[in-house]
Design brief:
GO terms for molecular function: ATP binding; ATP hydrolysis activity; ATP-dependent DNA damage sensor activity; endonuclease activity. The protein is α+β, with helices and mostly antiparallel strands. The chain has 14 helices and seven strands.
């Protein structure tokens, strides 16, 4: 067979024309049937993105054809590309449900601290009960010892006032422990101690100084504590030149409305000061007089109190030296229950 002529048209060759004819017809039909390109495809072409290539075409060939001026061969699977682009651009409706959640990091942190504190208390206590004495006359001393051991003066100011019970008792709370406070006994003990500490009894001067029958030791105790005797209403004149046991002479006695005092009260004071020299003390008859005064000026049973008045009485307990009973021996406070023990049971 002879080679084709140089000047002949490429369509004269059947082998060369067949692919072109087939391509042109199929391409035209596919282009007519294919949907119009979407906005996403136009945007990609406008942005300078590469046009998709057919699967059987390699990347170097199109570049070489472009350089040689040969027109690019359009990809055959146009319909598949258009369908995929259309599926990508279709908007999908997603149903959203917003559920409000009440949440606070501060409350969560406080709750965690509270739980950790409670756990530490449980581990440390190991079911240890600090108060075991019952509220009965036979266990007054045991109850007082427990209160003295577990309650410090600073804790009274930290107690929470729950309320008043039966117009005579104050219910307080400290951590998980519940206490009952006798409002009259508490106020009476506070007033009594204030009288003990600050009252200076007025003395009545004797017409003639009275000689005292004292031993040398007792006379020395009296001379060393003259200030305490004077606060109790007793006064003496000291003669340094007199012989021992005769140097001190009584010149004044304390007086009150219905109370009388004498040398027996001096002997009692000397006995008390010999054990605690320099410590302010009162003879028993003076204490009885102060207890009677304190009782009359204290809050009575049956008196309604507001929160501030109850707070004042409880706070005063932290200012006493011995807040656990009144001057007549009645208890001022007792432990009722522990809330942790009740919740466990």
């Amino acid at each position: 067979p002879s080679a084709p002529e140089t000047g002949s048209h490429p369509s004269s060759d059947p082998a060369a024309s067949a692919p072109e004819d087939g391509f042109s017809k199929e391409h035209v039909e596919s282009c007519e049937e294919a949907p119009a390109p979407t906005l996403g495809a136009l945007d990609q072409e406008a942005g300078g993105l590469r046009r998709p290539q057919p699967p059987n075409a390699s990347s170097p060939n199109p570049k070489r054809f472009k350089k040689e001026g040969v027109p690019d061969v359009p990809p055959e699977p146009v319909a598949t590309q258009s369908v995929a682009a259309a599926e990508v651009d279709v908007a999908v409706d997603i149903e959203k449900k917003i559920v409000p959640l009440d949440f606070s990091m501060r409350s969560l942190a406080n709750r965690i601290k509270q739980l950790c504190h409670q756990e530490q208390q449980r581990e440390g206590e190991q079911n240890y009960r600090k108060f075991r004495a019952k509220i009965c006359p036979g266990e007054n001393q045991a109850a007082e010892d427990e209160l003295r051991k577990e309650i410090s003066k600073e804790m009274f100011a930290e107690m929470e006032i729950i309320g008043q019970f039966n117009l005579g008792f104050i219910i307080t709370k400290l951590n998980a422990d519940i206490f009952i406070v006798d409002q009259h006994a508490t106020d009476e003990k506070y007033n009594f101690e204030m009288l003990q500490q600050h009252t200076v009894l007025q003395g009545q001067r004797l017409i003639v100084p009275q000689t005292l029958n004292l031993t040398a030791v007792n006379e020395a105790v009296l001379i060393e504590n003259l200030d305490i005797f004077r606060k109790n209403g007793f006064d003496f004149v000291i003669d340094e030149d007199a012989p021992v046991t005769e140097r001190a002479k009584l010149i004044s006695l304390p007086t009150s409305k219905n109370w009388t005092f004498g040398p027996q009260d001096i002997d009692e004071l000397i006995f008390m000061l010999s054990d605690s020299p320099g410590v302010m003390c009162r003879p028993s008859r003076v204490r009885q007089m102060f207890a009677s005064r304190a009782c009359r000026k204290s809050v009575m049973i049956g008196t309604a109190l507001n929160t501030s008045e109850m707070r004042r009485l409880v706070t005063h307990m932290g200012e006493m030296d011995h807040p656990w009973n009144c001057p007549h021996g009645r208890p001022t406070m007792r432990h009722i229950a522990n809330l942790d023990v009740i919740s466990q049971n």
